[in-house]
Amino acid sequence: MFSKMTRVFIIGLGEIGFNTAMYYIDNGCTVFGWDLDKKARKNAREHGIYVSEDINDFDFNMFEVYCICVSTSAVYAVINELVSNHELLEREVNPLLIVESTVIPGTCRLILEDLLKNKMGIAHVPQRYWAEDPHSRGVRRKRIVAANDEETLFKAIKFLKSVNMTVFPTYGLEVAELCKVAENAYRYVMIAYAEELYGVCKGLDIDFWAVKEAIETHQTIGYMLEPREGIGGHCLPMAANIMETISGFNNIIVGAQIADEKYRAELEK
After folding, report:
1. What residues in the chain have per-residue pLDDT under 70?
2. pLDDT tens profile 194-243
3. 21 has which bridge partners?
4. Listed residue (7, 59, 16, 61) closest to 35, CA to CA
5. Domains in the chain and their CATH numbers?
6. What pLDDT, in 10s, does the model give residues 186-199?
7. What are the DSSP E strand ranges found in 71-212?
8. Radius of gyration (Cα) for the chain, nearest Å?
9. How far is CA 30 from each of CA 51, 104, 163, rounded to the nearest angstrom?
10. 43, 18 contact by CB (below 8 A)
């Protein structure tokens, strides 16, 4: 089904999409890509990704795998573009459609029913890439994989294993969607706790870093995340916001957001 010459089309060539593309190239795939940003397209082209200036130049019948690596808010619109303007549902043999972006739980099911009309499957393989440590925490980390049916799940696992990926199949698209949001939100809470502890130490005139080092000797705690300039970036704050809005069980998340706000305010004094 999939070989070392699998033709993969990646939509979204930012940090996640670009590094995913390079990983697939390094593992034998022929990778094509597209991004709205001209600089992202130029960078991808310079690294061996086949990129056109006009998305309509591609022959969409040639791709065996589609990977969606765009921002959370753009996932639905991108797949709608593939269905509406590029005949994704008209193929004789359905390609594998993988959503690697972080999404709100229920998004893949909505896409399956609203856009794909249950005529083809969808797999969710959320990214765990961390830019600060791309070697040990890069694209090739153990990946959660879920799909709407067994056939699509089998295809996704087969493709990922063909590119030397370690996978953890799980039941249900919503499980994979929430897993990604929850693990990022968990890191958000852990950093917020470190920020709050920093404030406690400052108020008591105790060396925070000495306390942190002492805490880390506890065998069940190990490394404690660091307070820096506040919880920045895109992924962790977004996950905290999603967790806050999808359920009434959000007291810890809301508290962590307040802790981060107070920490930032202290840094500005």
Report:
1. 1-4, 129-138
2. 999 999 999 999 999 999 999 999 999 999 999 999 998 888 999 999 99
3. none
4. 16
5. 7-171 (3.40.50.720), 181-268 (1.10.1040.10)
6. 999 999 999 999 99
7. 96-99, 123-124, 143-147, 167-169
8. 21
9. 12, 30, 12
10. yes
